[in-house]
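Catalogue entry: protein

Sequence with per-residue tokens
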Amino acid sequence: MSACSDRHNREIRLARFDRLRHKAGMTQVPFSLPHLAVISLSGDDTIALLERLVTHSITNWEDGEARYGAVLMPQGKVIADYIATRTNDGVLIDVSAE
């Protein structure tokens, strides 16, 4: 991959991160975290899906509440750790961009 392509991909990731950060109401954060990616989950089955994949209970999870945890394979192996924030229409998950 060329340096130009790498720079372009980085700029796209930063722009997406900034849009998601703004959508989550995090417009006053004075720094960038390009090593992180934000995954937005929404829909009727979001909580049921996460309940099967993560290390912490997500029942009684209030809007705006953040929780630290890990995503697991069906065998229980940790795939990645994350910080998830409950929103009024789903969940935002901060994970490593790699």
In short: The chain has a mean pLDDT of 75.
